[in-house]
Amino acid sequence: MTGLFHVGISGARGRMGRALSQVLDARADVMVAARFDRGDQPDLSLCDVVIDFSTPEASAELAAACADRGGPALVIGSTGFDADQEAVVQAAAAKIAIVRSGNFSLGVNILIGLVEHAALRLPAEDWDIEVLEAHHRHKVDAPSGTALMLGEAAAAGRGADLKDLRAPAREGLAERSPGSIGFAALRAGGIIGEHTVLFASADESLTLSHSAIDRSLFAKGAVVAAAWVRNRRPGLYDMQDVLGFRQA
Ligand SMILES: NC(=O)C1=CN([C@@H]2O[C@H](COP(=O)(O)OP(=O)(O)OC[C@H]3O[C@@H](n4cnc5c(N)ncnc54)[C@H](OP(=O)(O)O)[C@@H]3O)[C@@H](O)[C@H]2O)C=CC1
Ligand SMILES: O=C(O)C1=N[C@H](C(=O)O)C[C@H](O)C1
User: Is the ipTM, as predicted for this complex, more than 0.90?
Assistant: First the structure.
C-alpha cells in the first residue's frame, strides 16, 4: 500500500525515539502525528501506526490500550519482556496487528536464518553453542532481545525450545552442560550492538557475527515494519514476516 500515513512515536525522547524522529522527518510519505513519553496521554486516534521503543512495561500498556480501541497498529521494539508482559502483547494481537522484534536490521534477520541452519547441520553431541553480545553502558536488559532471538534460532535448528536448552548465567564452579546454549553479555561505553553466535567442537569453531554501526539502522527497519503493518489483519508478526522470510 502507498500514500501518506501517520505515525506516533512512543519513547520519543529516548535514544531510539530520537533516531526514529530523524528518520521519519526525512520521509515525505510519513507524517509524525504524535510523540509521547512517560506520563503523557497520547491521542491514539491521530495515528495509523505507533512505533514504540520504550520499556516492556510501557509497551504492554500501550498494546492493551490500542487493542481496547481497535487500533492503531503497533511496531514494538522494546526488549526485556517478562512472561506477563508477553501475554498482554499476545492478547492485544488478537485485536490489532502488531510487529514485534528485538532487532529491525536486515543483517540480523538474515543471521537468524544462518544460525538456525548451522545449528541444524552441526551435531549437538560435538558442537557447543554460545551467544555473545555487547551493548552501551545504558542498556538495562540482558541478554539482549537479539541474543535471545539468536538463541531461539539455534534451539529451533536443534528441534527444541530455547527454554529447554538455555544455560543459567555462569558463575562459580561448574562444567558446561552438554547440549545447552549459553549467553554472555558485555556493557561498555557507546557500543551500538554486537552479536556473535559461536559454534565450537573439540577440533574447530565457527563464528557468525553482526555489528550495528549506526542506531538509525533500527529506526529505518522499524519504519519499514510500520509501512507493512498498517491495515494488516490482527496478529503478532515479526521482522521475518515483514521481510518475507517466513512463508505462510
Ligand atoms: N528492536 C530493536 O531493533 C531495538 C530495540 N531497542 C530497545 O528499545 C528500548 C528503548 O531503547 P532506548 O531508546 O535505547 O532507551 P531509552 O531509555 O533511551 O528510551 C526509552 C524511552 O521510553 C520512555 N518511556 C518510559 N516509559 C514510557 C511510557 N509509559 N510511555 C512512553 N514512553 C515511555 C523513556 O522516558 P523516561 O526516560 O522518562 O523514562 C525514554 O524516553 C529498549 O528496550 C531497547 O532494548 C533498542 C534499539 C533497537
Ligand atoms: O538497547 C539497545 O540499544 C539495543 N537493543 C536491542 C536488543 O536488545 O537486542 C537491539 C540492538 O542490539 C540495540
Answer: yes
